[in-house]
Amino acid sequence: MEEMINSDLVKALRLEKSWSQEKLATASGLSLRTVQRAENSGTSSLETKLALSAALNIPAEKLMPISSKTPQNQNTVIYGYIGAGVG
Fold first, then answer.
1. CB distance 55 to 28 below 8 Å
2. Which CATH superfamily is domain 3-84 in?
3. C-alpha gyration radius of the chain
4. How many CB atoms lie within 10 A of CB 47?
């Protein structure tokens, strides 16, 4: 079953780690094509969502799309979450 994920957050967290899509694919045990699809279309299976959340070290719930927020607010949430981990 296809699920929607917050593709912007996946990409932002990947870039924060200075990982390529290929590195994220390896770290998560997913194919490169699956990572590309998740980042580009925001669709994934539950298994993909769980693998990405484990590789990115965040709870799977955090990958839920932010559909009720405006694009401007999405950036605040995404970068606010990333900034919370910076000491």
1. yes
2. lambda repressor-like DNA-binding domains (1.10.260.40)
3. 12
4. 12
